[in-house]
Amino acid sequence: MGAVQRTLSDIALAVQRIYGEAIDPLEERFAFERRPGESEIAGAPTVLFLGNHSSGKSTFINHLLAAPVQKTGLAPTDDTFTVLMNGAEEDREGQAAVSDPTLPFGDLKSFGPEFLSHFRVKLRSTEVLREVTLIDSPGMIDARGEGSDRGYDFAGAVRWFAERADVVFVFFDAEKPGTTGETLQVFTQSLRGIDHKLLIVMNKMDRFESLQDFARAYGSLCWNLGKIIPRKDLPHIFTTYLPVDGAAPPALPARDFEGTREELIREVRRAPARRIDNLITQLEEHAQRLYVHARVIDEARRNLRRFGAKLWTLLVFLILFAGLAGAITITTHQEWWIPAVIFGGAALVAYAGSFVIRGLIRGSERQIVAGLSDIFERLYARELLVRDRVEDLRALWGKVHPHLRHALEKVGVRAFPKLRAEERDRLAGAVETEIPALRAQLHRELKHSP
Hints:
- Helices cover 60% and strands 9% of the residues.
- By secondary structure, it is an alpha/beta fold.
- The protein folds into two domains: 44-269, Rossmann fold (3-Layer(aba) Sandwich); 285-448, no CATH class.
- Strands 3-4-2-5-1-6-7-8 form an eight-stranded mixed β-sheet, with helices on both faces.
- Helix 9 links the parallel strand 7 and strand 8 (237-239).
- Helix 11 (271-331) packs antiparallel against helix 12 (337-370) and helix 11 (271-331) packs across helix 15.
- It is elongated, with a radius of gyration of 31 Å.
- The model has no long low-confidence stretch (mean pLDDT 85).
């Protein structure tokens, strides 16, 4: 194992340790979202290939593997999600693959039997697959009104794979650079929020007879992507082609296109480094959300307890005052009915007051849940004054708030435990010190690697 691989392995172990020590103790107690499982963290680096029919993604995979593993053709030839993994040659169909506890695909059962009939795992022993796992996908139907009758949630399945992938290639056929139908759905739903993983590939440059044709197709793709990617600047578009035995040489100068092809292959081989970077990013975002989630819940709980304590203290004071008054009437030998009335009134106040206080506490709890943003503003007042963090911090709260409110409405503020100082400090140390140190270690190692 080389120095880079040892560093990547060490960082992956450190990520698992931080989850175990700083996050796991708080997740269940504070009803937070599930963090990635051990199989997801320890899994192989993954590259997902998306594209419309005949865009060349399966051909590119075969080029990578130097073997005709995937079916290719101008017409639709394969409507299956295919995972290509390292191992002794074997093919496993969907139900067998998701039922194997050694494979990280058990969650795919939720997409139903129709999806499983369009899912398979292929094990092959190749150099590339020893480094990364490749996922081929069904060609997207790029026509209006089509692509909705697959029988399973295609966009949801793409989202599942894309969230777990470290690199996502999206191939476009240079002759059909459209973004309608399923392509539009995938970009606007499945790939939302994971732009940092995307590599856009405009393939089949060898089909163009002139620079004018190339410019027209490239401009068309840029225009279409500009309408569906919510960014001021479009991602870089890789332009390339794949060599085909017996085909005529490209009419356009091919050197740059061939260089781009090699660059794409390097991006595939960089997936292990991207994997660790994604793990660190995922850990950082998860820890930050949990930290805000737990702090706001703890403060909400404190506010409710303080409100309740004031009311119960007032009731106890009234009862004690009535008891003292009753005792005085007895010691001063007042008429028997006077202390009886006083003690009876005290009992009535205690009985009725407890009902009133419980109602007031429930009303206060509803107000606290409705005003969670006010609690966040108070807790983070100092940080919100630092201008370069304001937008990021408010965006973080925007992600935390819906789930937090749902948890409090479902479980109740009073059901949550106290956030202990050592737990808070441990999580804060991970967010502020340990995770940035892991990222610096990764970048330092990659910078000095050959």
